Amino acid sequence: MSLRERKAAKKKEDILRSASLVISRKGYHNATMEDIAAELLMTKGSLYYYFKNKEELLYRCHDLILSEAMKKMEEILSQEISSAKKMEMAIKFHLEVAIREKEIFNLIVKPEQIFSKEHLGEIVEKRAEYAEVFDRIIDEGVSKGEFSIEQKKMARMIILGATNWVQVWHSPEGEYSNEKIEEIYAAYLLKMLV
Amino acid sequence: MSLRERKAAKKKEDILRSASLVISRKGYHNATMEDIAAELLMTKGSLYYYFKNKEELLYRCHDLILSEAMKKMEEILSQEISSAKKMEMAIKFHLEVAIREKEIFNLIVKPEQIFSKEHLGEIVEKRAEYAEVFDRIIDEGVSKGEFSIEQKKMARMIILGATNWVQVWHSPEGEYSNEKIEEIYAAYLLKMLV
DNA sequence: AGTTATTTTGAATGCTTATTCAAAGTTAGT
DNA sequence: ACTAACTTTGAATAAGCATTCAAAATAACT
């Protein structure tokens, strides 16, 4: 890859990070292309040199963050540890991402309100894959006898709902540290499973 | 109250219901004043006869629905039943509202992205009051020895998060009935508390 | 240092919507 | 039936933003 190509790739990623940041702060609809560009001391026109339009940009943000998270989840899944331990790690990691990426990761909650058909399918699919990580841990735990859960789908919904919601109330100045929150959530949600 | 006043009051409420509906379907930013009016076979101009502007309209929607829900919660609180039973009822009722009012009740998740200062305070306060219902049940249950929970605030966050999240995935065509969902959620979340 | 391919710019365009308002239509109460 | 007060209308206004694009600036390579 030439120097130019590498520079362009870096710029693309810079833009994605900036977009994530601005969208986290203001929400998708209030984050203007100008805001995103300003964060990088660029002008909005330039963004269109790298991305077709705003939707494309958001789609790439979403994809980047979800892919990174997915990689980590795969790693947790493949470890040689108890299902309870896996679930604990998955919950903690998921909370970490949810807190860090607020808007992007969660609040694109009604993707059909934002994305056009081409992207929608991929997004829904990718999210389903991610959610499946939790299903797999639950299944494994149940068959090993570690968990006792009849309604596995609902259990997963409760876990993801509870953890996704964190970013609604979380504030960096809150009285609990992120680690503390992760500890408590993991403990209480595991209590529900066993 | 004169006939005219009563008619105007009814129209106001009709508009609020229509707005709730449209906003539920499309989300706040995609619900136009025209959509809201069209639902009632009116034109958007008329809406301004009843409400100052879109924000005011949304604020009133929010307020109406939350007030109704709050009334019911007070009633649950005052009954002579076990704390576990109260929590069960509160969870079930909350789910009912969350499913019915989707957007309005929950997805105004970042009120500061939508509301101006005047309304923001009242909204935050009213939501805090509502959340407190759950705190009170938890406190009561702990002191009666029915629940064993150290981190009461976190337990409440988990419960509200899990239940609020329902509207993200819920579909009327889903394989579970609302009642079934309510049953399972209440059972699993109570398991966490006791 | 010069040439050519990239990047960036910012002004112009156009679309979507909220909001206003004067005029037209409707209604409750006499 | 009349009329004064109330409602509705729809066309006009205005603001905010995404998107385009021709021209200017910059950088890589020889």
UniProtKB/TrEMBL annotation, chains A, B:
<dbReference type="InterPro" id="IPR009057">
    <property type="entry name" value="Homeodomain-like_sf"/>
</dbReference>
<dbReference type="InterPro" id="IPR036271">
    <property type="entry name" value="Tet_transcr_reg_TetR-rel_C_sf"/>
</dbReference>
<dbReference type="Pfam" id="PF00440">
    <property type="entry name" value="TetR_N"/>
</dbReference>
<dbReference type="InterPro" id="IPR041490">
    <property type="entry name" value="KstR2_TetR_C"/>
</dbReference>
<protein>
    <submittedName>
        <fullName>AcrR family transcriptional regulator</fullName>
    </submittedName>
</protein>
<keyword id="KW-0238">DNA-binding</keyword>
<dbReference type="InterPro" id="IPR050624">
    <property type="entry name" value="HTH-type_Tx_Regulator"/>
</dbReference>
<dbReference type="Pfam" id="PF17932">
    <property type="entry name" value="TetR_C_24"/>
</dbReference>
<dbReference type="GO" id="GO:0003677">
    <property type="term" value="F:DNA binding"/>
</dbReference>
<feature type="DNA-binding region" description="H-T-H motif">
    <location>
        <begin position="32"/>
        <end position="51"/>
    </location>
</feature>
<feature type="domain" description="HTH tetR-type">
    <location>
        <begin position="9"/>
        <end position="69"/>
    </location>
</feature>
<dbReference type="InterPro" id="IPR001647">
    <property type="entry name" value="HTH_TetR"/>
</dbReference>
